[in-house]
Amino acid sequence: MSWTVGPEPVGSVAALALWRAYYTEISDRWYELHQGHATNPAELEREIAADSGAGLTPPAGVLLLARWDGDPAGTAGVRLVDAATAELTRVFVAAGLRGKGGGSVLLTAAEEAARSLGATRVRLDTRHDLVEARALYARHGYVEGPRHNSDQYAEHWLRKELAPGRG
């Protein structure tokens, strides 16, 4: 069993299924923590549909899809916000496959994709309750930085300077 990662159209069946799984998990975690219940199904459908992932398409972005033994298992989106800065989004590994190194594989591939887009630094935002994600980013050299957006759910803004790419 092994991981592979490659670009994927944001509208593919696999990408849409993983986007739904990702959004459902982060939304439910927030609502359960703050309001004691899962996300309202109508709100969930509306919010999933509202973010098409349009910024994750060439020439200024890419959606990476990770597969575990050939099966879709995770994603990482990379989009340029300026000529030198890429933003990570939709970093997700399916719950049943966590702990098998998929997050590190995706993050490494996302950083390489950012370099290929011309970025010299990467940034992202995350929430305080997403402790697993914050630990992954810390292990990969991401550090807290200044607020770079006004997303109402963002509580941590992380950044990393990218070393020059391999050849």
Notes on the structure:
It is globular and about 45 Å long. Helix 3 links the parallel strand 4 and strand 5. With 167 residues, the chain is an alpha+beta fold. A 7-stranded mixed sheet has the order 1-2-3-4-5-7-6, with helices on both faces. It has 4 helices and 7 strands. The two termini are 29 Å apart.
Radius of gyration: 15 Å
Main sheet specs? 7 strands, mixed
Instruction: Give the class-level CATH name of one domain.
Output: Alpha Beta
Number of strands: 7
Terminal residue distance: 29 Å
Low-confidence stretches: none
CATH hierarchy: architecture of one domain: 3-Layer(aba) Sandwich
Helix content: 25-40%
Structural class: alpha+beta
CATH superfamily of one domain: Gcn5-related N-acetyltransferase (GNAT)
CATH fold call of one domain: Aminopeptidase
Strand order of the largest sheet: 1-2-3-4-5-7-6
Q: What do the pLDDT scores average to? A: 94
Q: How much strand?
A: 25-35%
Helix-strand string: EHHEEEHEHEE
Query: What is the count of helical runs?
Result: 4
What characteristic shape results from the CA principal axes? globular
Keywords: Acyltransferase, Transferase
Protein name: N-acetyltransferase domain-containing protein
GO molecular function, one term: acyltransferase activity, transferring groups other than amino-acyl groups
Organism: Streptomyces aurantiacus JA 4570
